[in-house]
Amino acid sequence: MPSILNPPAPETVLVVDDDHEMCWVLERALANLGCAVTSVGLGRSAISIVTERAFPIAFVDTRLPDMDGLRLIRELRVLRRSMRIIMISGYFLEDDVRILEAVRTAEIDGFLAKPFQIEAIVAAALGKANGHRRP
Predict the structure, then answer these.
(1) Are 71 and 43 in contact (CB under 8 A)?
(2) Half-sphere exposure (Cβ direction) of 19: Cα atoms closer than 13 Å
(3) Which H or E run contains 99?
(4) pLDDT at residue 1 tops 70
(5) Taking Cα atoms as reference points, which of 128, 99, 101 lies closest to residue 10?
(6) Beta-bridge partners for 86
(7) DSSP-derived 3-state class of residue 36
(8) What is the pLDDT of residues 94-133, one digit of tens each?
């Protein structure tokens, strides 16, 4: 039985990243938790799939070929307000003004700068991530 100290892994996870290798890494790490992972490489694809299916959590890259990750997150919030969103980026850092503002306004629930440790992804998926999270 899961406890507050050991919350269950989400059944499904959405990964939005145009880097196929990054998707592969996230898929493997999350599959080890028992999560079914759906990966897409475009913001429009993420919006389409989230319109059809609910995901408890999404990992979203800041730079996508078809739209800015923060814009995508705003659109995802309209569709699924309760979905936890963890932003991942190789371009922004935790102290970047845009990231701090997104955390402050609860647009994102957490942020991981690439490269990150697999343990950070696991912790974020389980809701145990340290650092920036929505209360």
Answers:
(1) yes
(2) 14
(3) helix 97-104
(4) no
(5) 128
(6) 59, 110
(7) strand
(8) 667 877 788 778 888 888 888 888 899 999 998 876 344 3
Nearest to 11 by CA among 48, 47, 52, 56: 56
Please give the sequence-ordered ranges of beta strands (E in DSSP) within the chain, or none if there are none.
12-16, 36-40, 57-61, 84-89, 110-113
Q: Which residue has the tokens 């890494």?
A: 25
In one-letter notation, the amino acid at residue 100 is L
- 39 CB-near residues (< 8 Å, 6+ apart): 14, 15, 16, 17, 23, 26, 27
DSSP 110: E
Confirm if 83 and 60 have CB atoms less than 8 A apart: no
Q: Which residues of 51-69 are buried (b: 16+ CB within 10 A; e: fewer)?
A: eeeebbbbbbbbebeeeeb
Q: What are the C-alpha distances in Å from 57 to residues 11, 68, 96, 115, 122? A: 9, 19, 23, 20, 12
- Residue 108 CB neighbour total at 10 angstroms: 24
Q: Which two tokens stand for residue 20?
A: 């196929």
- Angstrom distance (rounded) from CA 73 to CA 67: 10
| 70 CB-contact burial (10 Å; exposed 0-12 / middle 13-18 / buried 19+) | middle
